[in-house]
Design a protein that fits this description.
Elements lengths: L5 E2 L2 E3 L8 H4 L5 E4 L6 H6 L3 H9 L6 E7 L6 E2 L11 E6 H10 L8 E8 H4 L3 H4 L10 E7 L3 E5 L4 E8 L2 E6 L37 H5 L3 E5 L4 E4 L4 E6 L4 E8 L9 H11 L5 H16 L22 H15 L2
Length: 337
């Protein structure tokens, strides 16, 4: 079924200095072939997994990481257990060099246990790596993270920030779905997840269309690309993405940033509070609240509060950092009743 996915639009010949606002505020995904091909990390990986491993160890300074470990039976797919009461892997805190040793020891194993270090801050785990492998994102205060492992699969999920992911070792396959395919992805629990974000329950390698029939429609909208070392992919905010690491040693570095004021909380908080306070209202009351959200949130504009004097608009006007702190305190007081 993955073979039916459409290719992601590609741009070639760009360098880190070519990144601009048009690219970094795109609302469609982009593959940027060779964007970081000149990075020393990528050059090291071209000599093989051992060279890529040795390059990472140059920056290691006794940092610990959280590693996800699964038996060979899970086939690299980090997921729930059978009844969704837990997970099919264990999370352990370990020294990064010990994880690299384990990956090296399993490198020639045709069916290895699954080993994965995800979303680890580069400046903490590998100080100095950023300076040798720079990427200028302009004024964006981007979080730079590293992802290391063997042949693993991460279920389709979304991230709130925009995401620029750069493959530095191994190969990765990205399968993306636009946000409007939510209903067709059969998402699991919102408040109990393998790694923080809700995930699709569909196995993309073996989709059970009897159990998940609408997934066939999701695949009609799927986009896919396979990335080599030096390639990058831009994934806009809220796009669902399934990520597969395809070799026995894979390293990816990514940058996350938000196009929003610093005072803003994650919208997930609003979703969870809405489940608590709106979802179970009678139908007509939900429709009334839907109209309120449309008017004050989703289609808000200059006319929304134009009839109120500017000095009296309060939360309906521009929100400052101080106003955000006061509003947050008021909300916490009301929630903790």
């Amino acid at each position: 079924m993955l073979a039916n996915a459409k290719p992601i639009r590609e741009l070639h010949g760009l360098t880190p200095s070519d990144l601009n606002d048009d690219l970094l505020t795109a609302t469609e995904p982009l593959v940027l072939r060779g964007l970081v091909a000149r990075w020393p990390a990528v050059q090291a990986s071209r000599a093989g997994a051992a060279s890529a491993d040795a390059y990472l160890r140059r920056f290691y300074r006794d940092a610990s990481v959280v590693a996800m470990l699964g038996t060979r039976e899970i086939g690299g797919r980090f997921f729930y257990n059978q009844d969704l009461s837990g997970f099919n892997f264990a999370s352990v805190r370990a020294r990064l060099d010990d994880v690299l040793d384990e990956l090296a020891g399993q490198r020639d194993n045709p069916v290895p246990p699954a080993i994965y270090v995800g979303s680890t801050t580069v400046d903490t785990a590998l100080p100095g790596y950023r300076e040798e492998n720079p990427l200028d994102l302009g004024p964006r205060d981007a979080l730079m993270s590293v992802w290391i492992g063997n042949q693993t699969r991460i279920a389709a999920h979304y991230d709130l920030p925009d995401n620029l992911a750069c493959v530095t070792a191994g190969r990765r396959r990205f399968t993306l779905f636009p946000p409007d395919q939510l209903e067709n992805l059969y998402v699991g629990p919102l408040d109990f997840t393998p790694a923080g974000q809700p995930i699709s329950l569909v196995d993309l390698h073996q989709p059970d269309l009897d159990r998940f029939p609408r997934f066939a429609e999701a695949m009609r909208h799927a986009l896919c690309a396979e990335l080599e070392p030096g390639d990058a992919i831009f994934i806009p905010s809220m796009w669902w993405h399934h990520v597969e690491a395809l070799e026995n040693f894979n390293v990816l570095v990514n940058y996350w940033w938000r196009q929003s004021p610093e005072y803003m909380d994650t919208p997930t908080n609003a979703l969870m509070l809405s489940l608590l306070s709106i979802r179970d209202l009678p139908r007509e009351q939900r429709r009334a609240w839907q109209e309120l959200f449309r008017h004050y949130v989703f289609e808000a504009g200059g006319a929304t509060a134009a009839h109120i004097p500017v000095q009296a608009q309060r939360v309906l006007g521009p929100i400052s950092d101080d106003a955000a702190r006061m509003l947050r305190a008021q909300l916490l007081k009301k929630i903790n009743r």
